[in-house]
Protein 1
Amino acid sequence: MFLFKGETIMQSFKDVWEKALVILQNELNNTSFESWIKLLIPMKMENDVAYFCVSTLFQKSIIDKKYKKDVEHAISEAMGFSVTVQIMTEDEVPPRYREVAQRKNEEVSTALPKLEEAEIRAFNAQSNLTFENFVIGRENEFAHAAALAIANNPANAYNPFFLYGHSGLGKTHLINAIANKIKENNPDMVIMYVKGDEFTSELIDAIQYNSQRQFKNKYRKADVLLVDDVQFISGKKAIQEEFFHTFDALYENNRQIILTSDRPPKELITLEERLQSRFSMGLLADIQPPEYETRVAIVKRKASLYNLNIPEDVVELIASKIKTNVRELEGTIKKLKAFNSLWGQTPTIALAKDAMDAVIKENTNTAITPSTIIDQVSRYFNISIEDIKSDKRRSDIVFARQMTMYIIRETTGLSLPEIGKEMGGKNHTTVLYSIRKLEEAMKQDPKTAKISAELIENIKKSY
């Protein structure tokens, strides 16, 4: 137990915090570390609780939701025993610490412009999605040509660029390819990639915590703005209002705007007419389901990327059976790769049929409900449904909760607020944070990815 009253003992906590900062810097991306972790002012530790101060309620809320568990983990590792974290604003700090808190927060405030600039300049496109590994066919060659022209000459070729088509046809691949090519050609450009529901989530937080200035500054300083699944802003008046002004500010300053949707602007019936008009005034391009020859090329390209040797008859079978969804083609290759890596099974006709059946069933989604997913996860981990929906912080419960939210989003298509409602009233920010943490864990740990795949397969088999 530690009670920090004097300067010498306070210095001991600072030493612990310095060690924790090293851990956090290795675990978090640079933007998160510079923009949020560095806002924390260490105050004291008492009864295994580490107390920190920040300037505003908004900062407290974001760090509580997104980074508190990371901070607790880092301090616990530095201390050698479990520690919890309590974050306060200046008004909540005990009087004897208030002068120190105010002085430190003034120091942090002078650095905020640099921190905001770091967040603005963060590049979060998926680096593996490039023009080089995009398979071109008759059904997407116009969209590809337009995308490449924009990437080579942003804001001068086609602006805005609106790309639409059903899910799983390559829209996300193309706009990430645009972002990566622009960054390669113009390293100093500010390129902002965001999904429609994430834009919505960020703006709601900004309104709630009176930080609209930072929000506007972030998006309106972009040289290139890419919004994937922009249809998610439809039907939300305040979101559409802000997006309208962001769009106009960028367009008037000759900044490139790239949008994707599952349908053309005129079919987004809950989208305001003025936004429909803005979205339609540049170039519209659609992507159609791939033809057989393109599907064969996609299967071969994906197999090559996964270093998987697939016999020609198996390639032809997959291409002939999966006709409308590139994501299902890739999903089948991933399944075959998993069979090969985990059990040493080489791709055969029979194995390909099993893989396709599993993937197609996974993407059917018609009968799957959040309650079914929660129940299956509960059984798998032997953790009660009540605990999964709770706010308990025990690591196994947190992991099961994150897994549940991830699977609900992957298999049902519910929005972040809808998932939060199913999970005991969690807010959209918590849901998004949980999903991202699980996705990061799957990238770093094959066992986590395997658990996710097994759970999804078990859920599908229950129908």
Protein 2
Amino acid sequence: MIELVALGEDSTQVMASVRLDITQGLARSAVLSIPSGLVVNQVAGATVADWAATADALTVTFLEPVAGTASFVVSGETRAPREGSVTIPLVRVPGAERETGGVAVDVAGAGEIAERQPRSLEPADPSDLGDIISGRESPSMAAFRYTPQSGAAPRALTVNVSRYTPQAVLVANVEEARYDALAGEDGKVLVRARYAVRNNQRSFLAVTLPARSALWTASLAGRPVRPGMSAEGDLLLKLQKGRAGEEAPTFVVELVYLQRSQAWNEKGATRLDLPAVDLPVSRTGVNLHHSPRYAIEPKPGAFRVEADPGPWTAALRRASEVDVAGALATPPPPPPASELAARERKDLQVLVDQYKRDAGRTRQGAVPIAIDFPEIGPAVFLAAELTAEMRSPSLEIEYRKTGGR
């Protein structure tokens, strides 16, 4: 008899693996004693024909008389105290001349087993109790081996369960950063930065763009936004924040900017600096597109060249799927000429009214618009892990002109 008991907050799950060794004659059925309150849900086994449970006994009928060995698994549930002293429900075989096996007790949820009061049980390692326990071990599990004796001999186990309330953990980090960079021969690099941010702590994300960079657009969770500016000149993007005690949500912050550097010669080296954010970054991926007239070779460093496995986080995968769906969508048919003319007159009037309202006022910062990032030319993918906060990742590249078109 090997039994696994999982003490839940609402109910206790019981699973007992029974193996009967029949030494004399044939057995048409087996009678097990079950603790009061245990509801048997299932009895499974190759030789089981039927079963019936009463308040304190379970009768298992075999398909045909068994000589030798019969095995089956009993599954059930009962209600036990959530914490404090708990009497473990033990399934027994009262007619057995010699009862061996063991029992493992685990606490489901936030809790642990403190005091243990075994009777006719010896402490054991959970892995020694067999397949029913294998793979289910946990730090809170307590295991005991039966002292060999008859099935009618007294045997009991009482444990003291302590439960605790998990404290809310403040989380603010970038689970994944993905960069798409389009490097031109004239030294200009268009970069789209996407950050999968998990947050229930911070109100803003501070981003420091590389030198000689100009922000084109920014978005939060797919909606264009106008970032603020800190006293140090960093971009400030307002973050979505989860509630305390709940799992922090993951959303995407996106930036598109243009960076200027030296124009490419026939052969040489260049460096691509990436933005620094004030949160730690777990994973980073860079998809670098370049001119087909050049061959590039990244230098060894924090980044390594590998095949692009696609975004790791679900939030960035959804963002990529939206891009693909938008690119493949069939444009709607053009409206009739009369409707188009009326729409143009209406749009013109809206612009005139907007100009009148905004006359004499100026706005600073990037205008919140959404643009599609051009992914053209050959590309190389590079990956890195664990970037510290406010650290600007960078990669150095050697290039040479090959004469392609």
Protein 3
Amino acid sequence: ALKAYNGDVGVGVSLALAFLSQTNKPASTVIPVSFHQELEVSLDDDLYVVEVPPGGAAEMAGLEKGDQLTALNGEDVAGLPLATLRAQLASAGRASFRRAEAAENCVLACGRCKTLNSVATASRYFRCHSCRALAMPWACLMRRYPDPPSGCCAPRKVADIQSLQLLHDVSWEECGLESATMHPTGFGRAAEAPAGCQHHQQLGGSATCGIAAVNNLLTNANAPAITSERMVAISSKLGEAESAIREGAESVQEFGEEQCVADLYVTENGGHFDVQTLQIAFEEAGFNMWYVPDGALQKPGSLFTQANLIGYVCHRRDPMNPRQDHWFIVRRQNSEKGPSYLLQDSLYDIVFMLTELEAHQLCLSLPRGALFAVAQQSTPEVALGGASREERVRIDPCCKKFLTQLGFTSP
């Protein structure tokens, strides 16, 4: 049972309590999908998904049978003929799907990172989507269970209860972790930045985690830091290109709500930057940033085997509030004592030291689409199963034309 528990939880993941939120109720989930060729998905007459072919953009975005198409290329699909919808789905574009939460779901706040999770009311444990802790609802722990079998007198052991199979034979120990500074992912130990490490934090308390993530990789690779003005300029040009291909539209239907086109790449106060903004920032500095697909890092020693790889950019997505998305990085630093592995998060004034195994497990534990590798431009991506340069940038051909007109070099 302990082996099964360790296999499910994984290295570095902790236990936590979860508490019912009295102010938040489960709502429908909006699933954004960006596709660069035909979106291979079967829809019925009411635009509900009836089949998701394996290996396509629909499966990568997590679409499931029963999800409903609600917006396509910034337009509400309610007023579009079915033939027009199918024609737009046959070429590059953006779509939003809505997934209705089950009526028996509730919203639970993780007691470790305070993140809200929508889970089944009957769940006796779940994995927090943010800190990846194994969380147990408080109401479940307070429920009255049958008395343990007679003769079960082992001190400080979890009783042999059918409803808590995952916790069989787990001992509780005094380990001092209650006073330790923990990263929300559950990995690493807090420490001062080692000699030679440059650590950038968010500026002025604003959500500039994207700038800090880029600079935490660039400056530690002996490249100049990028300024916040340049990041905002990049995102603004991307917003102009987006507006141009949308024929001057200033607002679109995205993520189930009306949004300004300029805010698709950066928030209105210069905060959370889009992945394309980060990619272009690295491109201008002489580095490539590309998505690491599932299965590329399954071998424990494969994390930093590629030449000229400077680290990984990690994206923590908050499904309850996209404005709370966050960027941080994982990298290796070499020294005379040997390599060390660091998690650098701009929310902290310290870094988190990882073992090589922890760094590997952290990257594997991230949700699909949340891990990006960064290397110098001379490095091929074959070693990590990466995409071509054309696929890495992930900008539609018509968008590239406008980017060129706006002053970007063609990727």
